[in-house]
Write a structure and sequence with these properties.
mainly alpha; Fumarase C, Chain B, domain 1; Fumarase C, Chain A, domain 2; Ribonucleotide Reductase Protein R1, domain 1; two-stranded antiparallel ribbon; 6 strands; 5% strand
Length: 458
Amino acid sequence: MEKPWSGRFTEDTDSFVEEFTESVSFDRELALEDIAQDIAHVKTLEKAGILSKEEAQKIIEGLKEVEREIKEGKFPWKRSLEDVHMNIEARLTEKIGKVGGKLHTGRSRNDQVTTDEKLFLKREIKEILDLLRDLRVKLIKKAEKTVDVIVPAYTHLQRAQPIRFAHYLLAYREMFLKDGGRFLDAYRRLDELPLGSGAVAGVDFPLDRFFTAELLGFNRLTRNSIYATADRDFVAEVLFACALTGAHLSRLAEDLIIWASEEFGFVDLPDKLCTGSSIMPQKKNPDVLELIRGKTGRLYGNLVALLTVLKGLPTAYNRDLQEDKEPLFDSLKTLKGSLIGMAKVIEGMEVNEERTIKCAGGFTLVTDMANYLVQKGVPFREAHHIVGRIVSYLIQKKKTPEEATLEELKDFSPLFEEDIFDILTPSAVADRRKTYGGTARERVLKMIEVAKKEEGIT
């Protein structure tokens, strides 16, 4: 098949140009979406009286044959035909003859490719939303099993205050819930049909774009042909959602990598999700988590790559926009794999309760010593200073707050009474955080109920 622009040129395209400019090696990912919009476009052309019923039927039957070849892996992709659109159109014409050339009436590859990408992303976002939900459900179920497990919370990677492990897991559930919201927002914004915008100025055939949108399942139409063909904001938004979800996955991975180390020993990762060393027999390496952490860099890089492409483009379509697809395809594949991997880790890991509660005690309890004094009328800043002196004293004596005597505490404030020791346990301290969103057992149980209701699980 001749190139569609061959009438304008007096020389054949240089082989380097064919190799350098081709996109079919990666945009064939959009093949099924391209077929779907081809069929919708044919029906719109028939409705407008541009194609006869017989012509439309013949083209649609040919497109379905092409679709079968693609699904069965038998389609003869040709780099010389440049992209997925021209490959499909050429194959269609081989099968049904010249009438196949009528398929491209009233459209440009500019509005065609944007339509393909939006159809593709609508499908992909639904898959990601399902994977995010699966991960959130795994976090909720693990939280149910670990409500009574106390661990130290960290700030500045220093032990801070005791919390319930379930409370920690629900924190990540909140992050992934917000991530789902971002993908859903992106879906809603991209759910508008570009097809019918032509190359840049619209189409001079009486095409019913609302009819096309209904056939393809779009909620609305793009309202400006320049915007429709040049817009890649929807790709950037999806890449941003991928990158931020990756950040959350990476932070969770980092926590679990540290907590699975012998030095911490808070969690034990399933053997089937770890690897060993080629030289050190004792090693159990958290490779899945490390790769999730590492792949986040790719998610960031893909976002920056597209934003860099977009920042200096003159309006409207430019060939630079071809560079949106490889980052997009890579980010979607990378994120889906990372979500699957993390869900498996959360489901399979075990928590070492004996180790975590041991680390949750000690000086993580002293904030409540200060609050004890506050409840007896001491201004907080003064109480903080008193307890700071107690901490310094206990460190010198190599004792923990639980090991202090009442007489020792009274040396710093006569307001201390025997009941101070009732609150100097990790679980007691955790349960004093009863405010909405806190780590008290009753609050955590309530938030698990809320989370289960939101996810539709019993």
